[in-house]
Amino acid sequence: MTPSPPLSSAHTGSRISLVRYRDAEDWTEGVAAEIAALLGKEIQRSGHARLLLSGGTTPRPVYETLADNEQLDWSRLEVGLVDERWLSPDDSDSNAWLVRNSLMRHIDGAHFEPLVRPGLPLAECVHAANVHAQHAAAPCLAVLGMGGDGHTASLFPGSLSLPKVMSSQLLYASLDATGCAGANKWPLRITLTPAGLARADNRMLLLRGKDKLEVLEAALDGHDPMEYPIRVAMDLPGPQLRVHWCA
Questions:
Q1: What whole-number distance in Å separates Cα of residue 34 and Cα of residue 41?
Q2: For an engineered disulfide with 154, which of 38, 83, 99, 202 has Cβ 3.0 to 4.6 Å away?
Q3: pTM
Q4: Could you read off the pLDDT of 135-164 as tens digits, one per residue?
């Protein structure tokens, strides 16, 4: 097999638009500025905006920089999650905790909608997430990450429940990633489905490091989302997946 050509610094293909940055500082500022511009445009257009965020260490500096933006009317923003570990929102390993402590605590007036509701079992949390998402405005942006196995959101390759989640017409679903290395010690998840991700007007992927770029290149070399679930985000209709990368 002929290896795929390296992605250019301003690669634009049919599936993604890739932007490279010189260093982490430029990456953080550039991503935060693009998110702010999309939110501002949506607030101006419709009077409000809904933003879905991912967890992990990669996006934290972006969220902290975004919180410094003094031009946005934060009271017109609702923030939700792309996915969540089956943990209390107060657990420091949860995505809710990350978003609260990197973004929400530094801005005034925005509403945050976690996926896990303390006291409710997993199935009821998923039901509540779907009810809310179905009645809320469509997200103007979903900010995604990608693991070294090609997963995005909590769509882990090799999960026994992945085929069911991939075909679901609901916006959120539970997923058991037991045995999937990328899930670490948190196999139970609530995640956006492809149907839920399709509802977002824009999709953005944040990547750091050469290894992640190589995974992205491998994913671009095929179309089976069961092998690399990030392909779901690449192949949905609508605007191209916007990929921001630096070493």
A1: 11
A2: 83
A3: 0.95
A4: 999 999 999 999 999 999 999 999 999 999
Query: Closest Cα partner for 40 from 71, 68, 65, 64?
Result: 71
Residues, the chain, total?
A: 247
Token couple for 216: 């992205």
Structure tokens at 98: 């990350």
Spell out the domains of the chain, with CATH numbers in brackets.
Answer: 16-246 (3.40.50.1360)
Give the count of beta carbons closer than 10 Å to the beta carbon of residue 184: 11
What are the φ/ψ torsions at residue 35 (nearest 5 degrees)? Answer: -60, -45
Pairing of strands 49-53, 172-176: unpaired
Q: What is the pLDDT of residues 20-61, one digit of tens each?
A: 999 999 999 999 999 999 999 999 999 999 999 999 999 999
Instruction: Give the dihedral of Cα atoms 178, 180, 186, 191; nearest 10 deg.
Output: -90
DSSP-assigned states of every residue in 165-207 = HHH--SSEEEEE-TT-GGGTT--EEEEE-HHHHHT-S-EEEEE
How confident is the model at residue 11, as a pLDDT? Answer: 45
